[in-house]
Amino acid sequence: MIRLQQLKFSLEHKENDIINRIKKELKLNNEIPFEYTIIKKSIDARKKNDIKFVYTIDVSIKNEDKIIARSKNNKLTIVKKKKYNFISDTRQLEHQPIIVGSGPAGLFCALILAENGYKPIVLERGRDVDSRVEDVNEFFRTGKLVTSSNVQFGEGGAGTFSDGKLNTMVKDKFMRNRKVLEEFVEAGAPSEILYNNKPHIGTDYLRKVVKNIRNKIIELGGEVRFNSLVTSLLIEHGAITGVQVNNSEEIKTDNVILAIGHSSRDTFKMLKNLLIDIEKKPFSIGVRIEHPQSLINKSQYGSSYENSNLPVADYKLSHHCKNSRGVYSFCMCPGGFVVNASSEDKRVVTNGMSNYKRNEDNANSALLVNVTPDDFPENDVLAGVEFQRKWEEKAFELGGSNYNIPIQLSGDFINNKVSTKLGKIKPSLGDRVTFANLNECLPSYVCEALKEGIKVFDKKIHGFGREDAILSGVETRSSSPIKILRDNNYESNIKGLYPCGEGAGYAGGIMSAAMDGIKIAEAVVIER
User: Fold this and answer.
1) Are 201 and 353 spatial neighbours (Cβ–Cβ below 8 Å)?
2) C-beta of residue 155 within 8 angstroms of C-beta of residue 102
3) What pLDDT shows up at residue 22?
4) CATH (domain of 22)
5) Which residue, 146, 384, 410, 519, has fewest beta-carbon neighbours within 10 Å?
6) Does residue 436 share a domain with residue 313?
């Protein structure tokens, strides 16, 4: 195939414009047949009055070398189509491998194993996605929390209730990234995720996708069990021999993949008690901030956004503060919602999510500040968990007894006073909010960094620091507070125990978690 790069088109371009551009670049007449595939589509918005779509396109055509020579375009290259290939040197397993957790890491670990005949068993503490949606919606309406089925726990993991971003910084010469995207499309995701520069699915599509992936695992001989909390590991002579489920059932296996997610605090404690090697790690805490999506669109695109084919705009911001903390935006949700992501009694957590169309009035993002083990110096590997809990409990107290989210206008937060009324921006949480002073549910150094960051970010996005922007607290689950150590074979200090994904400290989002799940599937069955 011939790869064409940096092809720029107007915002109003049609498919025929792409076809004609290919013919022009390759000097083709109308009689020469070809097929093309969009490899990447991005936006060049550096000139607000002349925004362009930018494409990378692969063209399948006969006599590639002759066409390149004739075109005299030294930017053209011949590329070979790459795809993910499972390892060839595999071994047989005596028992079915067990995967703990059905988030992206667990699902893709199970899918790869099932595709290659290993019949994995997935144990998920929460409920299937349809039942989980009912529990979550009931919690949003009434404050009735189900601690095993919520925004954090259940089929699909925490990513099911998110914007569904699929971009990753992980380098991928083995095409695991492509494998994940292709499986998502096969399971019902929009095909444009295969080429968009910033692909996303949206929570509405994700709920269908995870169910279809589960069904594929089952069709391939795997098992998926819900309401199945792994309460202990069975260990003999330093090796896994099985798991205990719901404090009763025991299942024999010699391979356990821990894809437990960043909020599995009871499992963290169980692992600590079993002397699994764990260490504290840095993470970040902060708030959610909401602005009108129209403000973000105008800032990023200017007047070009009006009546155009441009997607809603996003942003990514960071700043190194005077107190040596880093403050940054995270998990930005264009046209989305702030949601209550609580998973423990009397503790409040916020997160953000968007539907595929991203067509709600507000944009929201986490504003986070880094914290390190020096901020929770207690001689306990789970000190970071207790640090998170402390501020989540403060947020619960400020919000009230019914899991209302404490909110504050940005200007009042900076001036350290409780808000008394909303400005022009309405919270996406509706009436499940309580005015409070968020300075009381975050460390002082975090609040100091947030205030400095908001002022700096206002210079980058005009209006970011407007006084009626809504802050919601607290966001503490940006990443796992621990790392479960693993060796060069991806095993922990217990043979046959494979820490995996975001909860184990090896991923930071849907894509990197799913790719880590594939990597661990390979590690489990490779010939030794």
Assistant:
1) no
2) yes
3) 94
4) 3.30.70.2700
5) 146
6) yes
pLDDT band at residue 74 using 50, 70 and 90 as cut-offs: confident
Beta carbons of 213 and 185 less than 8 angstroms apart: no
What is d(CA 118, CA 521) in angstroms, rounded to the nearest whole number?
10
- Give yes or no: residues 264 and 353 share one domain: no
Which whole number is the average pLDDT over 384-411? 97
Q: Are residues 461 and 517 in the same domain?
A: no
Residue 308: pLDDT over 80: no
Nearest residue to 479 (alpha-carbon basis) of 162, 263, 160: 263
Whether omega before 243 lies within 30 degrees of 0, making that bond cis, reads: no
Cβ-contact 293, 360 below 8 angstroms: yes
pLDDT of residue 481: 98
Report the SS3 class of residue 454.
helix
Same structural domain, 495 and 447: no
Encode pLDDT of 141-200 as tens digits.
999 999 999 999 999 999 999 999 998 877 789 999 999 999 999 999 999 999 999 999
Q: 85: which strand partners?
A: none
Q: Please, which pLDDT band fits residue 60 given cuts at 50, 70 and 90?
A: very high
The residue count of the chain comes to: 528
358 shares its domain with 462: yes
| Residue found by looking up tokens 């921006």 in the block | 425
Specify whether 448 is located in the same domain as 412: yes
Q: How distant, in Å, are the alpha carbons of 53, 196, 300, 304, 307 from that of 46?
A: 12, 18, 9, 12, 19
What amino acid is encoded at 421 in this protein? Answer: K
CATH of the domain at 497: 3.50.50.60
Write the burial class of residue 13 (CB in 10 Å: 0-12 exposed, 13-18 middle, 19+ buried): middle
Count of the separate structural domains present in the chain: 3
Structure tokens at 413: 């937060």
**3-class DSSP state of 440:** helix
Residue 258, both tokens = 């821990």
Same domain, 19 and 148: no
Q: Which residues partner with 304 through β-bridges?
A: none
- pLDDT at residue 528 in the model: 80
pLDDT computed for residue 45 by the predictor: 93
Strand residue runs (E) in 246-360: 249-252, 256-258, 278-280, 283-292, 318-320, 326-333, 337-340, 350-353
Q: Which domain holds residue 175?
A: 98-279+483-525
Task: For residue range 486-502, list pLDDT tens digits in order.
Answer: 999 999 999 999 999 99
Q: Which of 526, 528, 507 is nearest to 101 (CA)?
A: 507
144, containing H or E segment: none
Same domain? For 310 and 385 the reply is yes
